[in-house]
Structures are given as C-alpha cells and as structure tokens.
Amino acid sequence: MNILVFGASGGTGRLVVSDALARGISVAAFVRRQNSLPAQPGLEIIQGDVGDAAAVSSAIAAREVVISTLGVSAPLKPDPVVCAGVDHIVRAIEQCRSCRLIYLSFIGVTGSRSAAGPLIRFVARFPLRHEIADHEQKERRIQGSTIPWTIVRAPKLTDGAKTGAYRAGDLISATSFFPRLSRADVAEFLVSEALEPRFPRVAVRLLPAAT
C-alpha cells in the first residue's frame, strides 16, 4: 500500500507519517517546504502548495489512499486556501479513480456537535466558528462527491502518548465535559482506517473511551 499525506508537517500529520512508516507502508508527504520533515526510509517528500491544483493532482496520481490532516494557517480565522485545497484533492481523486480519501475533521461541526460535550458545544458557537464553517464546507464537498471517503470527526487534540483508549462510531457521544484525544491515537486510527476501511462513506466520530 502507498499513502499520501496532506498536512504532513503538522502535529498530527507527522504522527500519521511515523505510524504508517512503522507499519511498513510507503508514504508520500505533501509539504510546502522540502525540509519540513527529515528524510526517512520509505518516505517520499513532495514539495508543493495545496492551493496549486496541478501540483495536487500530480501528487495524487497512482496513490491508493490520501489522508488529509490539513489545518488552518491562522487559528480562529477562515482559511479559503485550505478549503480550495480540499476541493483540489477531491477533484484529483475523482479524475484518478484509484484511491480513497480520509479527511480529519472536528466533532464540533453541526452534524455531531450535540455529541461533543458541553465545552466544545459552547466554543463552537463563537471562538471556533470560522474553523468549523471551513470544516463544514470541506465536508460538504467531500460528501457530495463520488469518491470513496471517510470523514473522521475528532475532539480537542493533545500531544499526549498513544493509549488506544478511544471509541469510533457514527452515533457515539462524549462522556466527559471536554473530550480530548491524543494526536498519536488519532494518527493510529487514520492509518488503521487506511489499511482496513471500516467506515466507508461515513462521518465517524472519534472519542475517548467511556469513563
């Protein structure tokens, strides 16, 4: 299998790359700066801008799975470039007809906000409204396409260790006031979903294990 990771130089993307390489998967990392990631066996680094449709299309050609962990360039603000980038990704997959998309979203979007816990429901209404609007725009584009996709709606991410103590499902709800999950656990789930798709064309919620 080969995987292409967008957002590979970010906190979660780096862990996706590491997790996949540790499982013996060939990984290509799409990054804006060539030196964003250290060279590693099995890793191909592709320098490009997600806003460049031709660069995105070239990178996606012949891939089996595309994982997007793209974040915003400035917190709490809309990011039209990344929204356009996800559109470029979807268009490229539609054209190549040979791969799946796994997109990391946020549980605070409208479709799962009621299950997100009181604090996330609160901040989703104002501080995070622009980021959530962007996620919802990208989700609509993905869900309206004909490509094989999985949307992963995760809670607040932390830099904690991998625990394996999480739940996945399209109807589960948070059992804590402010659900959090380590980026390492999220990365493990994304790569596992790439290897063995359990949630085809499902917006799956990813939450800590019930306490």
Describe this structure in words.
The structure is a single chain. The termini are far apart. The longest helix is centred in the middle third of the chain and has 17 residues, at 80-96. Helix 1 (11-22) packs across helix 6 (183-195), helix 2 packs across helix 3 and helix 3 (80-96) runs parallel beside helix 5. The protein is of the alpha/beta class. 34% of the residues lie in helices and 23% in strands. The protein has one domain (2-208): NAD(P)-binding Rossmann-like Domain (Rossmann fold), CATH 3.40.50.720.
Write the layout of secondary structure elements.
Elements: E1 2-6, H1 11-22, E2 26-31, E3 43-47, H2 53-60, E4 65-68, H3 80-96, E5 100-106, H4 118-124, H5 129-143, E6 149-154, E7 156-158, E8 166-169, E9 180-182, H6 183-195, E10 203-208
CATH topology: Rossmann fold
Radius of gyration: 16 Å
Spatial order of the strands forming the largest sheet: 3-2-1-4-5-6-10-8
Mean pLDDT: 95
Largest sheet composition: 8 strands, mixed
Label the CATH architecture.
3-Layer(aba) Sandwich
CATH superfamily: NAD(P)-binding Rossmann-like Domain
Number of β-strand runs: 10
Low-confidence stretches: none
Beta-strand portion reads: 15-25%
Count the domains: 1
Q: Which CATH first-tier class would you pick?
A: Alpha Beta
Helix content: 25-40%
Number of helical segments with 4 or more residues: 6
Q: In whole angstroms, how far apart are the ends?
A: 36 Å
Shape assignment: globular
Give me the strand/helix succession. EHEEHEHEHHEEEEHE
Structural class: alpha/beta
